[in-house]
Design brief:
Layout lengths: L2 E9 L7 H19 L7 E5 L1 H10 L1 H12 L3 E3 L14 H19 L5 E2 L10 H7 L4 E5 H6 L11 E5 L2 E8 L1 H6 L5 H14 L4 E7 L9 H7 L2 H15 L2 E3 L2 H7 L14 H6 L3 H16 L5 H9 L9 H4 L1 H22 L5 H10 L17 H19 L7 E5 L8 E5 L3 E6 L5 E7 L4 E2 L12 H8 L37 E6 L4 H6 L14 E6 L3 E12 L2 E12 L4 E10 L6 E10 L8 E5 L2 E6 L4 E13 L4 E24 L2 E17 L6 E12 L2
Parallel strand pairs: 1-2, 1-8, 1-9, 2-3, 4-5, 5-7
Antiparallel strand pairs: 6-7, 10-11, 11-12, 12-13, 13-14, 15-20, 16-17, 17-18, 18-19, 19-26, 20-25, 21-22, 21-23, 23-24, 24-25, 24-26
Length: 710
């Protein structure tokens, strides 16, 4: 019997990606692939298109969808379903998992006239409860990497057929995706992939081999359009497959055809996991380096045979996807906000709110997976994707939970799922989330008129690939290398090794720094200063007072500054009538306390840099500097930031003249294009020189104001 080959593509662009990225990927990858396979009517394929991409193609490339319809009608193409906006299903409440899958199956039926039987599982992230949820949503089969079958205890020889899995008495068929084929196609010579298939067919008669992977590797990733189309890799591969079909050594199938011909007859239970690389990325950075070192030691150890090395690697496990919420607090905050909005949308459904369906769709868009993790691609590190998630979550929230004008609402609960209570105060336009146990910081600031979280930044932290950047700077590898992503990315900017700097406290707002009086902006920029008091990131006592028209949160901490006792009370007030926050400071201390500098740090995230319509301003100075500028100013009572594209002008006013420092928040990360520096936001410090030797106290009030442009 010939080996049965299933070739599958997963085409995806995330919610919030740039319009030109959609268009370029379509031009370089999705369109030429379909044009090419149309010339090979005997070859069969499976295709999954994510909902965000499909909606874009409906609006901008309807002819492409008509081409797909033709391929479906002639039996060449099998359409795979999925969850509509490509979430990691294990992070969703069960109602949203099933809802997203059913919504997308209905959409695909409307577009292509197909009854969806199988689905693509985003990032192949698996937990046991998915079996019953997928079955409940009407799905008969899905695909997981063969690595996950191996982790379940199967041998290599058992990876060439579908299996049942089960949860709560519901059965689901699962196909193994071949890792060897993922690394052969299209990275090695076409003949190597065909030779592998023929040898497998000889060793395992009637074997099923599923080669399914990102469609972007066929044209959208760096250098792959030239590789696949200009240099003809895909045409050579398809020509070779066509010859083998004619010779009867390879048979190309749809997944549903395999199931009808030889249904699964064995059962397997999978551990929580994903594809091998994802489990590695989910580990904390130090553990990732250990994991990689152990892999290399096994590969190079002379005392083990290749078979023994393969067995050893089976027992070397990475992490689980949920631990991205441990690794990156920003992911946990976004996830927690998503759950909060999901609860509000479900409450709207139960009370038959007329905005429910629109809010549910916005919620689903805010569940798109890419911003909730980071691996070989930018993901979490890409601010436009993070802010798109918040944009849709806040739109859903606004639709079903809007506060009446001139009113405020207050609540204390564990909003960010860290085991401790936070405070939320909100009016018609703003929602402010405070974390008393983390320095009393504002960790989320939602601006509902523009659906933007001004605190959705990202702290700088070590990543395992930073070592490659440092090695390149030392001349150990070619920093200008351009290669396929399977082998390693390129460097998009010079001097990135000089920008590797790490934060050891969150990058948020209303952070209190007690500093030496002579500290400089350069020291703050380099992190080369010491806190003179233990306030930053430390617990504050909180008292929340709320009336229908005003909320006040008072946060107090007592600690030493330069060895002398000091008590800081800072108070946030939010009125129902105004779009501003009043931030009051009162310090009481010992007359023996040496002079010190109080610097209050604010973050402005999502206000992009490098454009003339995004700028700083201050007294008498309009459009005075770009948002990536380092500034050192004195004796100001007002300082503003404007992003005309975002439709926001915001300013801080101080009752007492202050010094102002500004610093860009920039991270160094990897993406499919290579290593790059990304602007995450602007840090603004208001600072005062304080002398308690006369009077023993100091007070001041700041107003943080927001103006939404038309």
């Amino acid at each position: 019997m010939p080996v049965r080959l299933v070739l599958g593509l997963h085409n995806h662009q995330p919610v919030g990606n740039f319009e030109d990225v959609f268009a370029q990927a379509h031009h370089d990858s999705y369109q030429p692939f379909v044009h090419l396979i149309a010339q090979y009517p005997t070859l069969r394929f499976a295709l999954h298109i994510s909902g965000p991409l499909l909606e874009w193609q409906e609006r901008h490339r309807p002819a492409y969808l008509r081409e797909l319809n033709h391929l479906v009608e002639r039996g060449q193409l099998e359409i795979l379903g999925g969850a509509f906006y490509e979430p990691i299903l294990t992070m969703l409440p069960r109602r949203d998992r099933i809802g997203q899958i059913r919504r997308y199956s209905e959409k695909l039926n409307d577009l292509f006239g197909v009854t969806v039987e199988g689905m693509w599982l985003a990032e192949r992230v698996w937990e046991a409860s998915l079996a019953s949820d997928l079955a409940e949503a009407g799905i008969k089969f899905t695909l997981l990497d063969d690595h996950q079958f191996v982790q379940a205890g199967l041998e290599d020889a058992e990876l060439h057929e579908p299996y049942w899995t089960e949860d709560e008495g519901r059965l689901l068929t699962v196909f193994p995706i071949s890792e060897p084929m993922r690394y052969l196609v299209p990275w090695k010579e076409p003949a190597a992939a065909i030779r592998y298939l023929k040898e497998l067919g000889q060793a395992h008669p009637n074997a099923v081999v599923v080669c399914a992977d990102d469609g972007e590797k066929f044209g959208a990733w760096p250098e792959t359009h030239r590789h696949c189309y200009t240099n003809g890799w895909l045409k050579q591969f398809f020509d070779g497959l066509q010859e083998e079909l004619a010779a009867g050594t390879i048979q190309m199938c749809h997944l549903s055809e395999v199931l009808r011909a030889t249904p699964a007859n064995k059962i397997v239970y999978f551990p929580d996991g994903s594809y091998r690389e994802m489990t590695e990325w989910a580990l904390p950075a130090p553990r990732q380096r250990t994991y990689q070192r152990l892999q290399q030691e096994i590969d190079h150890a002379a005392k083990w045979s290749p078979e023994e090395k393969a067995v050893l690697k089976r027992f070397l496990r990475g992490g689980v996807w949920r631990n991205f919420r441990m690794k990156y607090p920003e992911v946990r905050e976004m996830y927690a906000r998503m759950l909060e909005v999901s609860e509000a949308v479900e409450a709207a459904r139960q009370r038959q709110d007329p905005h429910f369906e629109e809010a549910e769709r916005e919620l689903y868009r805010g569940q798109c997976n890419c911003s909730y993790w980071h691996g070989a691609f930018g993901g979490l590190y890409l601010p436009h994707l993070r802010h798109a998630v918040y944009h849709h979550l806040l739109q859903a929230d606004r639709l079903v939970r809007s506060v009446a004008r001139n009113h405020v609402e207050c609540q204390e609960r564990d909003f960010n799922l860290d085991g401790r209570k936070e405070i939320c105060v909100r009016n018609h336009h703003l929602a402010v989330y405070l974390s008393p146990h983390e320095g009393g910081m504002i960790y989320e600031l939602d601006l509902f008129p523009i659906r933007h979280n001004l605190q959705a930044g990202l702290a700088r932290r070590p990543e395992p690939y930073h070592a490659a950047i440092q090695e390149a700077a030392r001349g150990k590898q070619d920093a200008h290398q351009v290669s396929l992503i399977a082998e390693g990315p390129r460097f998009k900017q010079e001097g990135l090794e000089k920008r590797l700097q790490y934060d050891f406290s969150p990058r948020k707002s209303w952070l209190d720094h007690f500093l030496h009086e002579a500290v400089s902006l350069e020291q703050v920029q380099q992190g080369a200063f010491g806190e003179a008091g233990s306030f930053l990131g430390q617990p504050y006592e909180a008292k929340l007072t709320c009336s229908p028209h005003e909320a006040e949160a008072a946060l107090t901490r007592s600690a030493d500054v330069f060895g002398q006792p000091l008590t800081l009370t800072k108070t946030l007030r939010l009125s129902g009538k105004q779009d501003d926050l009043a931030l009051h400071y009162h310090i009481e201390g010992s007359p023996k306390t040496p002079r010190f500098r109080l610097a209050v740090e604010f973050l402005f995230a999502g206000m992009a840099a490098g454009q003339p319509d995004r700028y700083f301003s201050w007294s008498g100075q309009a459009k005075a500097g770009p948002l990536e500028a380092m500034l050192q100013l004195t004796d100001l009572t007002e300082f503003g930031l404007t992003d005309e594209w975002l439709k926001l002008h915001t300013k801080l006013r101080s009752a007492q003249p202050a010094g102002v420092w500004t610093l860009p928040l920039q991270t160094v990360s990897q993406s499919e294009g290579g290593y790059e520096m990304v602007h995450q936001g602007s840090r603004v410090f208001f600072h005062w020189l304080i002398d308690l030797r006369q009077g023993g106290s100091w007070s001041n009030e700041l107003h943080w104001q927001f103006q939404f442009l038309h």
